[in-house]
Design goal:
This protein is 36% helix and 32% strand. A 4-stranded antiparallel sheet has the order 2-3-1-4. By secondary structure, it is an alpha+beta fold.
Length: 95
């Protein structure tokens, strides 16, 4: 069953362009991973330093494998350095 992963990130003011660059790199790598279906990145209109990434995965196991992937972990460290608060993750299923 396909799932959606929603990740909210709040960047330090002035870091939003670099955050976008790293997120694009992260998505480019995710696109090559088993189970990745699609993704989009949205910026909050009233709070431009807040972005939401929504990705769709074939299964929860596929997402978990990517979440623990060494490449992703390294890119997440770069992302974390640009944020003012920890990322918030939510996993949702269709019903």
């Amino acid at each position: 069953m396909a799932i959606k992963v929603i990740i909210e990130r709040k960047s330090v003011p002035g870091n939003d362009l670099e955050l976008n660059r790293v997120l694009m790199e992260l998505r480019a790598r995710a696109m090559k991973v088993k189970g990745y279906i699609s993704g989009e990145t949205l910026r909050e209109l009233d709070e431009p330093n807040t972005c939401i990434v929504i990705s769709t995965w074939s299964t929860l196991d596929d997402w978990k494998a990517w979440e623990g992937n060494a490449e992703r972990v390294e890119l997440q460290k770069k992302i974390d350095a640009l944020l003012r608060a920890p990322s918030r993750h939510r996993v949702l299923v269709y019903y």
